Backbone:
């Protein structure tokens, strides 16, 4: 922790790259922990349900799973989101890059946020492109339909879909230019998002995760712990 704080003190263009573990303390389960979404005992895997093909072939089953397991409308940002927003405000942090789709970084006050996998807050008609709110999705029984009659799709990147080019390019550029990259709450298992770490070639790569990640060996500091607790300590030590 001491080395981590010292590194933050020395850095002025920190980039944070996070995943589902960042929002676990906000009550949103991750995918791969023991009690994560992938541990649900279903005949079809969540990866298959959350795929492009499944959405168009079985929209009812897709929305049943999506509304029940992917949406947490009452979730509030936790210490990790809050302290990252403070680090941006103080000018230390340049951007947050997230694999999360829950919008909690923005809710905590972060301004520069790149959502690699989109957001549940944005939804659009598959035919005419009209936009819809999350409230509309949640209050529609079954499959939400547009006023034109076509199916509405959440603006999230499903398995089998491409990441948005602009978001990926901006994220890569920020990770390349960073003077410190903090990677947190991600198993680094989902590609191409996980390969973002390769853009950072500096000597201040920090990984904060509850469990081992495939990149621990190449990090300069590894903290195995709860990210919300680590950032609570950062807040205290930096007095922000
Ligand atoms: P993942 O489930 O594969 O990995 C999460 C990692 O976080 C695990 O290694 C786990 O040990 C760790 N973790 C859990 N709680 C933690 C905590 N309190 N502090 C520190 N680490 C903690 O998630 P991923 O790598 O982000 O990839 C899964 C995909 O699932 C992403 O693409 C994301 O879009 C999606 N997803 C998003 C949300 C969300 O928006 N909140 C939730 C679940 C899944």
Residues:
């Amino acid at each position: 922790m001491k080395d981590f704080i010292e590194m933050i003190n020395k850095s002025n263009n920190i980039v944070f790259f996070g995943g589902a573990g960042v929002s676990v303390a906000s009550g949103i389960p991750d995918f791969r922990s023991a009690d994560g979404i992938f541990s649900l005992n279903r005949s079809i895997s969540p990866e298959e349900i959350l795929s492009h093909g499944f959405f168009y072939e079985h929209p009812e089953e897709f929305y049943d799973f999506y509304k029940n397991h992917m949406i947490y409308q009452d979730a509030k940002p936790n210490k990790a989101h809050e302290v990252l927003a403070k680090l941006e405000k103080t000018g230390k942090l340049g951007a947050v890059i997230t694999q999360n789709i829950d919008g909690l970084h923005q809710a905590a006050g972060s301004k520069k946020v790149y959502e690699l996998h989109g957001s549940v807050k944005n939804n659009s008609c598959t035919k005419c492109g009209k936009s819809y709110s999350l409230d509309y999705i949640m209050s529609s029984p079954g499959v939400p339909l547009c006023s034109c009659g076509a199916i509405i799709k959440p603006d999230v990147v499903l398995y089998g879909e491409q990441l948005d080019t602009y978001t990926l390019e901006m994220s890569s550029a920020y990770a390349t230019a960073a003077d410190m990259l903090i990677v947190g709450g991600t198993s680094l298992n989902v590609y191409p998002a996980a390969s973002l770490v390769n853009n950072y070639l500096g000597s201040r790569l920090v990984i904060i995760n509850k469990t081992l990640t495939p990149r621990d060996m190449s990090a300069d500091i590894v903290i195995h712990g709860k990210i919300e607790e680590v950032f609570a300590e950062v807040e205290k030590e930096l007095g922000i």
